[in-house]
Amino acid sequence: MFEIGIKEISRKAIHILNIIIPLSHIYIFTNKIDMIIFLSAMVIFCFFIEISRNQNSFISKIFEKYLSFMMRSFEKQGSLTGSTWVFAGALITIVLVPKPFCLLALFFLAFGDTVAALVGIKFPFIKIGNKTLSGSFACFVMCLFVALILNFDISLKVILIGAFTATIAELISIKINDNILIPVLSGCSMYLGNILV
Q: N or C: which end of the chain has fewer CB within 10 A?
């Protein structure tokens, strides 16, 4: 077993807060177009911040002082931060996938990805690239648990398809950020599965 550092705990605590996105689609921006406009504005804002922190010394110092402790090394070197990827992934998911599948896919990202990372670090059983089988199993179980608790009236077969897809998306190591890959692929798989199953 390994200890989970404050950096990872902080990142994952913020990651859990991503539930604000699907909750906003449920309770505030209930119309798809309104949600797309909101997320588009957030993506533009995030890119503005990303550019500013790389070109503006004042913004850069704020990031360094208050946020650098939980940033990955490549983020400190100028790559996009996780929050930008989250909003971009949410936007693509909402555009491509109808309710309730897009909602569940975004909850999968918030909870499944978070648990996968924490369990994978604490109990690193069978390494697969930079991920672990233990983390993937935890992701799958958490996705199932979340889907059953939320009860979006989606069949169990479709939930299993979505949870499995989210788990594979979290596990595989490719250059597409998993904050995009998890909700887009799991959402699309559930939507298509609901049509075909």
A: N
